[in-house]
Design goal:
heterodimer; A: mainly alpha; Non-ribosomal Peptide Synthetase Peptidyl Carrier Protein, Chain A; 4 helices; globular; B: alpha/beta; Peroxisomal Thiolase, Chain A, domain 1; 10-stranded mixed β-sheet; two-stranded antiparallel sheet
């Protein structure tokens, strides 16, 4: 289970990117629920890469269509990054 | 209105450095896509592009002259030179003063601009090369064609992203048809392999990490390409009077705007461009035997284009053949409309339809006959070439066998 602060940061990025209140971004919301189109998704991926200093591959990005999927994806990339650099967080 | 003949073709792209090589590759289904060599690609998520291989500018231009031209402008001149020679056009003072030159370019001299920005931002230099502006400007191709050939008629450049060259061919057709110009040299060129621009394409997430597989279920995006293509258009009556070889006729041109979304295409907009081109050509949809599709290989383009073709052609959609030659020469952006117009005209002229290469798996959302992997002999009387740009600006051209 991802840490609460990670969930919060992802929700905050989504809310800011889409211009909606954070309360409206539930963990179970799909991109369709949030009214996101393909260009919104591309912008969101960029914002997440900036926020977490990660690089999200296209193939992985394509399979994700919900806030929860995004949180899990970001967590996996952060874990991979810390394993590669040997640092935590 | 005058009928408009195509009497000259010039091509340089990943499939070959002249029209003959281009056509041979198209027929054989050769793929010109491979690892990008123009830049250090280690920091790129995608690795492949369709570059013009073994291109040495000094084989085409004096070194001093070449230094004044960005790669994209060189491709414009190389293609125009071949097209004008192919047409056997005698450049008399009268021909020079009345001929129009219209080029398409999407990103212009990116390599030159990128170098200048690198010098300032990264290398901490305080000056850039003095030719950076004239090398970067999108109209450099048109200007250099005019300078080389001595053409002093109407000359301009159209920049409508991936439809640029289709709009250029269409405008040239309109000018010749209306009598505004007896001859028009039209087409487009592009050389998009600069790191800054490739990073921008990467950020948009539309470029395939592998190859370009239009209409295939496992398609994963477009592949960028470079090159140039030019056509010589002239009045049919004067072409016949000259006794010159005629590849075909530009019979119709249609344009539309989606007025919808900056990147997401609309099937209504695409359909409107095709319908207007058919109506401009005064031919029934049933006469079209082949469509050179826009077919970028992205998830959305190919299904949207399929829906648009079904909308325009109804039951005939299942009888015509389509292919995306971008699967072989990549997406050449501002050159694409002319490169693909040349492919369509050559296909009709030779009675051989080029395939959609790299095709593996049928997609129910792209359920037309896409000529998978192998070229096919076919007698085609009329064909269509589609170009749909980011920004929703669409252009379709109808060609008829002469």
């Amino acid at each position: 289970m991802p840490a609460d602060d990670l969930i919060q940061r992802v929700r905050s990025v989504v809310a800011k990117n889409k211009g909606i209140p954070e309360d409206a971004v539930s963990l179970d919301a799909t991109f369709a629920d949030l009214g996101m189109d393909s260009l919104d998704a591309v912008n969101l991926l960029f914002a997440l890469e900036e926020e977490f200093n990660i690089s999200i591959p296209d193939q992985e990005a394509r399979t994700i269509n919900s806030v929860r999927g995004m949180v899990n994806g970001v967590q996996a990339l952060l874990e991979k990054k810390s394993a590669e650099t040997g640092t935590s967080g | 209105m005058h009928r408009v003949a195509i009497t000259g073709l010039g091509v340089i792209c990943a499939l070959g450095k002249n029209t003959q090589e281009f056509w041979t590759s198209l027929q054989q289904g050769n793929v010109g896509i491979g690892p990008i060599t123009a830049i250090d690609r280690s920091c790129l998520r995608f690795q492949n592009g369709a570059e013009v291989r073994d291109y040495n500018p000094h084989e085409y231009f004096q070194p001093k002259h070449a230094d004044l031209m960005d790669r994209f402008a060189q491709f414009a001149v190389v293609a125009a030179r071949e097209a004008v020679k192919d047409a056997g056009l005698e450049l008399t003072p009268e021909v020079c003063s009345t001929t129009a030159v219209i080029t398409g370019a999407c990103v212009g001299g990116q390599t030159s601009e990128d170098q200048g920005f690198y010098d300032i931002y990264r290398a901490n230099r305080n000056r850039v090369h003095p030719m950076t502006i004239p090398k970067t400007m999108a109209n450099a191709g048109a200007s250099l064609i005019c300078m080389e050939l001595g053409i002093t008629g109407a000359a301009f450049t159209i920049s409508t992203a991936c439809s640029s060259a289709a709009h250029a061919v269409g405008l040239g057709y309109s000018m010749v048809a209306s009598g505004a110009a007896p001859v028009a040299v039209v087409g487009g060129s592009e050389a998009p392999f600069s790191l800054g621009l490739l990073k921008a394409w990467e950020a948009l997430r539309v470029v395939s990490p592998g190859t370009c597989r239009p209409f295939s279920k496992d398609r994963s995006g477009m592949i960028l390409g470079e090159g140039g293509a030019m056509l010589v258009l002239e009045r049919m009556d004067s072409a016949k009077a000259r006794g010159v070889h005629i590849y075909g006729e530009v019979a119709g041109f249609g344009m539309s705007s989606d007025a919808c979304h900056i990147t997401h295409p609309s099937s209504d907009g695409a359909a409107a461009a095709m319908q207007r081109a058919l109506s401009n050509a005064s031919i029934a949809p049933e006469r079209i035997g082949y469509i050179n599709a826009h077919g970028t290989g992205t998830e959305v383009n190919d299904s949207t284009e399929t829906a648009a073709i079904r909308k325009v052609f109804a039951a005939h959609a299942d009888r015509l053949a389509i292919s995306s030659t971008k699967s072989m020469h990549g997406h050449t952006l501002g050159a694409a409309g002319a490169l693909e117009a040349a492919a369509a005209v050559l296909a009709m002229h030779h009675g051989v339809l080029p395939p959609t290469a790299n095709y593996t798996t049928p997609d129910p959302a792209c359920d037309l006959d896409v000529i998978p992997n192998e070229a096919r002999k076919a007698d085609v009387d009329c064909c269509l070439s589609n170009s749909f740009a980011f920004g929703g600006l669409n252009a379709a051209l109808v060609f008829k066998r002469a």
